[in-house]
Structure formats: C-alpha cells, structure tokens
C-alpha cells in the first residue's frame, strides 16, 4: 500500500466520521458507538485468560447474539457447532488469549481447532479481551478496507495469523490517525460497506408489503443455502469456498461488493459466484454477477480456472432471459417458497 493510497483512504474515513459525529444521522451507528462502554464491561472479564477455563456454553452463546454484543449480526450461526465440545472450546480460547505468545502464533494454533470459529468470532473475542490492542477482521471490515483501497497485500503462502497481524496493524494505525478507538472504527466500517435496507426501493418505487415479505424469505433462503449447502443438489458438484480463518463463503467481501455465496467445483478447476435476485432490476442482477465474476478471475482464480455465475430467482421474465443469453457463463435457477399450517399429532392424555 502506498502512502498516497493510505492518506486517501484515511481522508475518506475522516470525512465520514466527522459527518456522522456532527449530524448524528445514522441511528444504527450511534447505537453501536454509544453502547461501547457498557458492552465491553459486560464481557471483558469473561474473556480474560484466567477466567476462560470456566466459561459455560450459555455465556459463550449469549456473547454471540447481537442483542448482547450490540455490534455484530450473525456470530451465532455456528454457536452450537462451536460449543459441541466445551472443553475443546475452553482450551482453544485459553490459547487465543495467552498474551505470552505472539498473536500470529496464537491465531495459527486456533484457526481450525474449533469447527465454525472463524475470523469474525476470533477477532471479536480479542477486541473484548483487549479493546485497546485488537481490531476486528470480518467480512464487513474487509469489504470496507477493499472499497477504500486499503486492503493489505499479503505475501503468498502467509498464514492466517500472519495476515491478521498485518490487518491489525492497519486497524490500529487508522484508529490512531483518526483519534478514535477500535470499537468505533469497526462501527465506521458499516457505513462504508454495503448494508441491507429494511425498505427496499427500485428507483423511486417503494416495494409493497407482499414483496417485502418475500425479501425477508429470501434473506432466510440465503442463510438456509449457506447452512444446508450439503443437502442441496448444488453440493453434488460444488463446495462452498473455505480458507483458513474464513469459513464464510457467505457474503464474501470484495472491492466491488459482497458475493452472496462463493463456491469451488469438487473436481474441475472452476469457481461459482452465486447471487440471489432480490429487489434489483434484471440488468442490475446480471451486471452484479458479471462484476463479481471479473473480480474472482482477477483476485482468486488461477490462469487455468474458469469462473461461472449462478442467479437464483423467484421468477423469470423475458428481459432476464435475453440478458442471460448474452452471458453463457451465467446460469439461472428458480426457487419456490411454501408455507403450511399443520395440526399437531394427537397425544395420549391418559
């Protein structure tokens, strides 16, 4: 990263921070920032090395919930998987929080020790354990840094711990130059990254209640596909992309947005970009998939690897089919959502 790139990204963050501070217009951002002290105090002692040996499943799972950590959605997705072996979880957390070892050593030891515990959970715990030292590396912060052209260039073959060390140095530098703490910096990244909108709009047209309900179902479909990938027909040929410290093929961060799901072929040198068509137009959907395909080609795929796209939609019209006819590397699948009310099975009350 050049000094010019860093200064440009820093200035963009500074303008955004000053604007939010002066106007106080973003309610979500203000809530996260204002909850810092009470939330850190609530869990700081839980994630100290001497206390972690006694952590319970209930306490750990409560931390993962947004209503308690007041900062991150989605950490709870793999809560049951992480807590399946509580003794293993405790031992792993003791390694993670052992300040006698370097952060690189610790992260390289714990990154694949507990199923489901990826970079988002690991670094969130580090922030609570030592909020003045460790920043958060998750899909939101990574996507924001890419948008700001601040994402580090890692050496080929560098470990997860080594990469986090670079990321954390950058986060601390940004926080110091902005005059803010790492908790606030992480909240600021939400303002940079793309965020879901509770009231989807196409142009100037507000979506109807029926369509809004379908968008909510599509959000659950997104999570369902990710959590149940192995049960779908797609899993016969494709596996969700996985790399050390980043089991989140879900909303994979790029400089040009977040890919809904990213997968690799089980046998062939191919990648798959999966996007759910929500409220955007057909042209926007196809353009978005093609943009992600281009990014994967330039940043992840090797020279001999093909990158394909898959759009999953609720319905189809001619304009979408015409657009896809000019994009032979993009396929379309339709989904159905059904909802039924069933009477309970009778029980013997004798």
Protein architecture, described:
With 350 residues, this protein is α/β, with parallel strands linked by helices. Strand 7 (306-313), helix 15 and strand 8 form a beta-alpha-beta unit. The chain is globular. The strands form two sheets. Strands 3, 4, 5, 6, 7 and 8 form a six-stranded mixed β-sheet that branches. It has 15 helices and eight strands. The protein folds into two domains: 3-192, no CATH class; 201-334, Trna Endonuclease, Chain: A, domain 1 (3-Layer(aba) Sandwich), CATH 3.40.1350.
Features:
about 350 residues; alpha/beta; Trna Endonuclease, Chain: A, domain 1; 6-stranded mixed beta sheet; two-stranded antiparallel sheet; about 50% helix
Question: Secondary structure elements and their pairing?
Answer:
Blueprint (H helix, E strand, L loop, with lengths): L2 H21 L3 H8 L1 H9 L12 H8 L1 H4 L9 H4 L3 H11 L6 H8 L8 H11 L9 H9 L12 H19 L3 H11 L8 E2 L2 E2 L2 H19 L10 E3 L9 E5 L2 E9 L4 E7 L5 H18 L6 E8 L4 H8 L4 E5 L16
Parallel strand pairs: 6-7, 7-8
Antiparallel strand pairs: 1-2, 3-5, 4-5, 5-6
Helix pairs in contact: 7-8, 8-11, 10-12
């Amino acid at each position: 990263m050049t000094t010019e790139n860093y200064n440009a990204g820093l200035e963009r963050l500074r303008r955004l921070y000053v604007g939010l501070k002066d106007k106080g217009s973003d309610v979500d951002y203000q809530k996260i920032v204002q909850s810092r002290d009470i939330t850190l105090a609530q869990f700081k002692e839980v994630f100290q090395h001497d206390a972690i040996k006694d952590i319970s499943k209930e306490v750990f799972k409560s931390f993962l919930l947004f209503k308690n950590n007041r900062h991150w959605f989605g950490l709870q997705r793999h809560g049951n998987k992480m807590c399946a072996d509580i003794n293993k979880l405790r031992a792993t957390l003791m390694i993670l929080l052992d300040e006698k070892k370097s952060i690189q050593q610790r992260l390289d030891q714990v990154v694949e020790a507990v199923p489901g515990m990826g970079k988002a959970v690991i670094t969130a715990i580090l922030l609570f354990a030592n909020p003045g030292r460790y920043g958060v590396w998750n899909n939101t912060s990574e996507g924001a840094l890419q948008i700001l052209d601040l994402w580090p260039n890692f050496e080929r073959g560098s470990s997860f711990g080594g990469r986090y060390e670079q990321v954390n140095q950058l986060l601390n530098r940004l926080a110091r130059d902005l005059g803010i703490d790492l908790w606030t910096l992480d909240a600021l990244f939400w303002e940079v990254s793309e965020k879901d909108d509770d009231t989807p709009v196409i142009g100037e047209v507000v979506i109807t209640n029926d369509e809004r309900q379908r968008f909510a179902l599509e959000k659950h479909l997104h999570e369902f596909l990710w959590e149940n990938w192995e049960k779908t027909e797609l899993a016969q040929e494709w596996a969700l992309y996985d790399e050390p410290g980043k089991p989140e093929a879900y909303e994979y961060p790029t400089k040009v947005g977040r890919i809904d799901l990213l997968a690799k072929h089980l046998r062939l040198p191919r990648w798959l970009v999966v996007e759910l068509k929500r409220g955007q137009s057909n042209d926007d959907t196809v353009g978005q998939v093609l943009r992600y395909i281009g990014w994967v080609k330039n940043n992840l795929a090797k020279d001999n690897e093909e990158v394909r796209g898959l759009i999953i939609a609720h319905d189809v019209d001619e304009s979408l089919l015409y657009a896809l006819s000019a994009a032979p590397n993009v396929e379309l699948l339709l989904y159905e959502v059904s909802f039924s009310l069933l009477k309970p099975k009778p029980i013997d009350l004798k």
